Amino acid sequence: MASYLVTGASRGLGLELVTQLAAKPVTEVRIVFAAARSSNPQKLEELAAASNGRVQLVRLDVGVKESAQEAANEVEKKLQGEGLDYLINNAGVMDYHPNGLEGMDTLDEVFHTNVTAVHYVTQAFLPLLRKGKKIVINISTTLGAFSKVHIYQPMPSPAYTVTKAALNMLGLQYAYKYKDEGFTFLAISPGWLRTDLGSQYADLPVEVGAEKTLDIIQRAGPEVNGKFWNIQVDGWEEPRGQNKNQYDGKEVAW
């Protein structure tokens, strides 16, 4: 009967993660906090209304430190003395610069959302996580892996790539800092998904990415603290598709 909080829950992967978590039996998932910055889409509103209280909507602007703390205070009240088991830092943005590095002018903005905001949220929820299962998931991407820079260098999203690499290091810093307390910090690449961020040309339906991401999350424990993991999708064990992606279910080399 675990509790979850998902940031960026109003659309894309975040919305699908909340949807699939809410569909699991109450013996596995007790409550899901769906955190988003602004008004919620009709699907999320309907999901919450039909959940018998299992899906709780939380207003959270991840880029504002005070908003992160206010959200943590709200969740603490709703948990009524219990801890938060899973924090899924999913909220993020992607830039588009056809000229690559020469045209990149959004690095500060993208860094704040993809890295600094994750730090704000994680800081704010640490006290609640200490009372729960102590598992923090950072949604990352293989675009942020140094080992794959030769593959993804032509991608027109340099700020996204740079900031996801920084996010991986942030998670690793947390992993080492809090390992003696029993925390698990894990980065997961959910694949290139057909969302507003990923586009209709992406490799996988968002439903598949969310399902495979949750498969990893629900098995996560201290033995994978500080790791960077790829989802596993049948037929994608070897690189394929226009960007030579692969989803082999293995640890990603930094």
Automatic annotation (TrEMBL):
Pfam families: adh_short (PF00106)
MF (Gene Ontology): oxidoreductase activity, acting on the CH-OH group of donors, NAD or NADP as acceptor
Origin: domain of life: Eukaryota
Keywords from the UniProt entry: NADP
Name this polypeptide is given: Short chain oxidoreductase
Stretches that traverse the bilayer: none
